[in-house]
Write a structure and sequence with these properties.
This protein has 282 residues and is an alpha+beta fold. The chain has a single domain, classed as 4-Layer Sandwich (Double-stranded beta-helix). The chain is built from six helices and 18 strands. The protein starts with a strand and ends in a 5-residue tail after the last strand. The protein binds N-oxalylglycine and manganese (II) ion. The site of manganese (II) ion (MN) has 4 residues, from loops. Manganese (II) ion binds next to loops.
Length: 282
C-alpha cells in the first residue's frame, strides 16, 4: 500500500490496495492515514454494494433513514447520486451537497465518515471540493477563538429556513415532502473536538447553520458570514476530479465539502454512498 499526499491542506491517494480484501494490519494503516489526511482516495476499486457496506461498517454504524430519497433497491444503507434520467425520472439525487456542508450535521449524532464510490464519471464537471476546518479553526485570531469558544450553532435540515441555501431544482415541487419531514434542529458547539484526535475544528457550514443559540441575528448573522468566508480560504482546500472506480472516504468532523455539479451533457455521473455515524459533537 502506497500513500501520497494530494494537497497541502488535506487528502491522500492510496494505491496498491483492494478494499474487498484487507487484513487487520492494512486496516490499521488505513485508519491511521485517515486521521492524518482526513480524506483518502482509493483508485480502481470494484465494490459491490455489499462490499461497499462491509468496508464502511468497519468504521461505525451505517446511517439509514426510512424516508431518504433514492436509496438503492434492497439497500437502505446505500444512496444513489446520479444525473441519469430514465423515462423522464431521475434515478438518483442530482445535486447532493451543492452548498458547503458537513454530512448530517443537522442530526444529534452526525456522520463520522462518508464513503462515496464513483461507478460512472462525466468527462467534464462533477468535481467535489473539501475544506479543512481544523485549519480554519487554527488560523482564527485569538480574539475570535475567545469569542466563539462557548457558542453553539443551530443546524437545520430544511433549506426553506436557510437564506443561504436554495431548494434543489429537483425537489422544488416536492419540497414539502423532502424538507417537511419531522427532523428536529440540532445544536452543536461551533468549536468541535474531534472524537479521535481531540483537535478543534470550526464545525459550522452555510448549508446547515442558520443561527447561534441565544444570540440575536443582528449579531449572529454577520459573525456567521465572517466565519463562513474564513472557512473556505483557498489554502485550506482540495478539489477532486473523479475517476471511475474511485472510492473516497472523508472525515466529517474536520472537513466541510461541496459538490460542484455543472456536469457537461451528455456526461453521466453515477455514484453510491454510505455514511457511518460518529459521536455527539462536544
Ligand atoms: C455527499 C456530497 C458531493 C458530490 O455525497 O455527501 O456532498 O460531489 N456529495 O457528490
Ligand atoms: Mn455531503
Amino acid at each position: 500500500m502506497q500513500i501520497e499526499r494530494l494537497s497541502d491542506a488535506l487528502g491522500a491517494e492510496v494505491t496498491g490496495i483492494d478494499l474487498t480484501s484487507i487484513d487487520v494490519t492494512t486496516f490499521e494503516d488505513i485508519r491511521a492515514a485517515f486521521l492524518e489526511y482526513q480524506l483518502l482516495v482509493f483508485r480502481d476499486q470494484h465494490l459491490s454494494p455489499d462490499a461497499h457496506i462491509a468496508f464502511s461498517e468497519r468504521f461505525g454504524p451505517i446511517e439509514t433513514r426510512p424516508d431518504r430519497p433514492f436509496t438503492l433497491p434492497g439497500y437502505p444503507e446505500v444512496s444513489v447520486l446520479s444525473n441519469r434520467v430514465v423515462d423522464g425520472e431521475p434515478v438518483g439525487v442530482i445535486s447532493a451537497g451543492d452548498f458547503w456542508h458537513t454530512d448530517l450535521s443537522f442530526s444529534e449524532i452526525p456522520c463520522r465518515a462518508t464513503f462515496l464510490h464513483a461507478l460512472e464519471v462525466a468527462e467534464e464537471g462533477g468535481d467535489t471540493e473539501w475544506s479543512n476546518i481544523y485549519m480554519a479553526y487554527d488560523t482564527l485570531s485569538d480574539d475570535m477563538k475567545e469569542r466563539i469558544t462557548d457558542l453553539k450553532g443551530i443546524h437545520v435540515f430544511d433549506r426553506r429556513r436557510n437564506r443561504r441555501a436554495q431548494v434543489d431544482q429537483q425537489f422544488v415541487e416536492k419540497a414539502d415532502k423532502v424538507y417537511g419531514i419531522p427532523i428536529s434542529d440540532a445544536v452543536h458547539p461551533v468549536v468541535r473536538h474531534h472524537p479521535e484526535t481531540g483537535r478543534k475544528s470550526l464545525y459550522i457550514s452555510p448549508r446547515f447553520v442558520v443561527g447561534i443559540e441565544g444570540m440575536d441575528d443582528q449579531e449572529a448573522q454577520p459573525l456567521l458570514d465572517a466565519l463562513f468566508e474564513h472557512q473556505i480560504r483557498p489554502e485550506f482546500r482540495y478539489c477532486h476530479k473523479w475517476k471511475k472506480g474511485d472510492l473516497l472516504m472523508w472525515d466529517n468532523p474536520c472537513l466541510i465539502h461541496i459538490g460542484r455539479g455543472e456536469i457537461k451533457p451528455p456526461g453521466i455521473r453515477h455514484m453510491h454512498r454510505t455514511m457511518v455515524l460518529g459521536d455527539r459533537p462536544h
